[in-house]
Write a structure and sequence with these properties.
This is Ankyrin repeat domain-containing protein. By secondary structure, this protein is mainly α. It is 47% helix and 0% strand. Helix 1 packs antiparallel against helix 2.
């Protein structure tokens, strides 16, 4: 509909100019999101479906969801077609507006005069995903016979359409396979995606196209081959190798095809077709290191038969035995005389891995590896474990639960300070205590596990577990500090009442002569200080004044808060610390 129809009369021309001016104002207001002007123009009677020279209504230009909602509520036609046969959903410049239109039933598969649907015009992954969420199809062809995949060169969109079922074996309007087309453009990222989605399995290639692909894949390292080997896609790998893909390809980490192979069948195929078994990656890992990670005994056996050194060390000083996650693969390595007692640069043995499985541990221990061997820090394998089944296995096989490292820490102390265990920490600590861990062993600084737990964590669960299993709250470290000192030094005053209930001494003085009460006052925590005072903690008036001066100077509290504490003590704040008194006076 046009409101600017031409007429021969003078008045008609004047009226047309006025109507043109009206819809122009409406269009500009919609484009800029000026809700007030849009409302005013519609109230004045400007038709909501007025069109511009392209046959588009104001809704085509809308970027603001609230403005779009107003237009729709006032009768805007969301299926209006412009001169190209496109609806507003083709043109909207906002995903919010597109979501509104699609949510109200706009046809996400409407086809314009070129035979294309709105998703053909998606510029971002977010726009495409929105349309897909509203049942847009990715397999339509336009009037030239091309699908959306042929017309897309954005990597993220290309991947998205393949994930949604777009056919990777399509051709361009000229009949050129898409794989050949993107290879000619040297888009290796798109070549990789197409091959990953198995386009070669049913792609029919002409002789010249096969020659081109063979030359293309053989000239440059074929990164996609590495991916397909990693995915263990044997059929695709065979296709590429037959096309001439070089087996010398390496990724950014320097890993070749044999580093990526995870099964005996794949390793055998690659070796039979000339893959170099002696390739070493940037970290010094041989294919044997990576095969043991994959836990395939057949792959390990094949690589050893092709001359790989069973005791080759990577940059970290680790042999393939350190990488084995499977008991059978570990057994194969040991049968080929892998050094059971090898140590890496940190002094770790093959047993000292937080992700090791019990079957691998059983093979290593059965072969004679020392369960209590120590690394460069004096830590045993037990101290490297993160899971209860690992701890249980080692303890069942005689691991010393109270062994100490070079700092005098036990496995219980290690567990108390480990940051990555989350809520499992209390459960693991309880397990160790029930298996005989001593909660009152002191490290070389005189600290117990209770002190370590108080210094590192504000959660009471770990402390309660220790209390329930006999942790001594009266322990004193080499600096004369008790558990209350450690608690307050690291700002966990909420634990004070519970520690007092456990028997902590509120009047213990550290090597500097400070009591827990003085530490609280220095931090300006008068509320907790009052609680401690009520439980029998004491300090001299002089100590109190010095601590309060420090808190005031550091803006940790105000005089009103101090006054509340002094009322508990019975001392006169104004007498001891007159307002305006300087520190040290």
């Amino acid at each position: 509909m046009k409101v600017t129809e031409k007429s021969g009369g003078k008045n008609d021309r004047k009226s047309g100019r006025q109507e043109t001016a009206s819809w122009a104002v409406l269009f500009e207001a919609v484009r800029t999101g000026d809700m007030e002007t849009v409302q005013r123009e519609l109230d004045r009677g400007v038709p909501v479906n007025s069109t511009n020279a392209s046959g588009q209504t104001a809704l085509f230009l809308c970027r603001d969801r609230s403005v779009a909602k107003l237009l729709l509520d006032r009768g805007a036609d969301m299926e209006w077609e412009d001169h190209e046969g496109r609806t507003p959903l083709f043109a909207v410049l906002s995903t919010d507006v597109a979501d509104l239109l699609a949510g109200r039933g706009a046809d996400t598969n409407h086809r314009d005069r070129e035979g294309r649907t709105p998703i053909f015009y998606a510029r971002t992954e977010a726009e495409a995903e929105l349309l897909l969420d509203h049942d847009a199809f990715v397999f339509y062809r336009d009037i030239h016979g091309e699908t959306i995949l042929v017309q897309t060169r954005d990597t993220d969109l290309f991947r998205l359409y393949l994930e949604e079922g777009a056919d990777p074996c399509v051709c361009t309007a000229a009949g050129v396979p898409l794989l050949v087309c993107v290879a000619r453009e040297d888009r290796r990222d798109l070549v990789e995606l197409l091959l990953r989605y198995k386009c070669l399995r049913k792609q029919k290639l002409k002789r010249k196209e096969r020659i081109f692909l063979k030359a293309y894949l053989s000239q440059a390292p074929c990164q996609v081959l590495l991916k397909l080997v990693e995915y263990n896609d044997m059929k695709q790998v065979r296709w590429l190798v037959e096309l001439g893909a070089g087996l010398q390809a390496r990724d950014r980490q320097g890993q070749g095809v044999l580093h990526k192979a995870c099964t005996g069948a794949m390793v055998r195929y690659l070796l039979d077709h000339g893959a170099d078994p002696l390739v070493v990656d940037n970290e010094g890992n041989t294919p044997l290191h990576m095969s043991t990670v994959c836990s395939d005994a057949e792959a390990v056996e094949l690589l050893l038969q092709h001359g790989l050194d069973v005791n080759a060390r990577n940059a970290a000083g680790r042999t393939p035995l350190f990488a084995s996650y499977d008991g059978s693969a570990t057994s194969v390595l040991l049968q080929h005389h892998a050094d059971l007692h090898a140590r890496d640069r940190l002094g770790y043995t093959a047993l000292m891995r937080c992700d090791i499985g019990t079957d691998t541990m059983e093979v290593l221990l059965g072969a004679g590896l020392d369960i209590d061997a120590r690394d460069n820090n004096g830590e045993t394998a037990l101290m490297h474990m993160h899971y209860d089944f690992q701890l249980e296995f080692l303890l069942d096989h005689g691991a010393d639960i109270n062994a100490t490292d070079n700092k005098g820490w036990t496995v219980l102390m290690q567990m108390a300070v480990r940051p990555c265990l989350g809520r499992r920490k209390a459960e693991l600590m309880k397990f160790l205590l029930e298996r005989g861990a001593d909660p009152n062993i002191k490290d070389k600084e005189g600290c117990s596990v209770l002190m370590h737990a108080l210094r590192r964590h504000r959660y009471w669960a770990e402390i309660q577990v220790l209390a329930d299993h006999g942790a001594d709250a009266r322990v004193v470290d080499k600096e004369g500090r008790g558990v209350l000192h450690h608690c307050l030094m690291y700002s966990w005053p909420e634990h004070v009442p519970d520690l007092l209930a456990m028997g902590a001494d509120p009047n213990l003085r550290d090597a500097a002569g400070k009591t827990p009460l003085v530490l609280l006052l220095e931090k300006g925590n008068t509320k907790s200080a009052a609680t401690l005072w009520a439980r029998g903690a004491r300090c001299t008036p002089e100590e109190c004044v010095r601590a309060c001066q420090m808190a005031l100077e550091n803006n940790l509290c105000d005089r009103d808060e101090l006054q509340a504490f002094f009322r508990e003590t019975g001392w006169d704040l104004e007498l001891l610390l007159p307002e305006g008194t300087a520190s040290g006076s």
